[in-house]
Amino acid sequence: MLVNKNENAIPDYYYRHILDITPDKIKNMGAEAVAVDLDNTAVHFGSFRLEDGMREWTENMLSSGIKVYIVTNALLGRAFILSRQMCSVGFTAISLKPSTRGIETASRRLGVPVSKIAMIGDKLSSDVLAANRAGAIAVKVEPLSKSSGKAAKYAAAAAAAAATVVTAVIK
Ligand SMILES: [Mg+2]
After folding, report:
1. CA of residue 155 to ligand 1 center, whole Å
2. Model pLDDT for residues 97-118, shown as the tens digit of each residue
3. Domain ranges, residue 86
4. In terms of pTM, does the model score above 0.85?
């Protein structure tokens, strides 16, 4: 497990993939809600389409009594589109993690104390640090794509172009 030397960026829990995290595991952490990062946690970087299984994962959490909220640095439009694919759960876009704003907003909107929110994300420097600063439970997952930045943006653009072509062919 990779951990930053900065103790504020050390996760409380570590899983390889968000789909490995079950409602029972969340309950065993003492959490009543999850705050979910989007890019490289629930979707490939820059994508408008959720990772396969994420809708079912969200439904499973909700039906088990775990509240779900999205805390993302993504822009409003994409956060909205992706929240619609996650049972229309609430979200904070442009959360500026490691700012604690998104997690604190989640706490207010869900009516769950910050200490009972598990923040799930792939980045130590944003998700884990924000969770620790806020006093939430920090859950680290591996990024969906190892590449980030330009390479991931090109991949997302290529995927979007391919989807356009496929849609055009279907029509
Ligand atoms: Mg991320």
Report:
1. 16
2. 999 999 999 999 999 999 999 9
3. 7-145
4. no
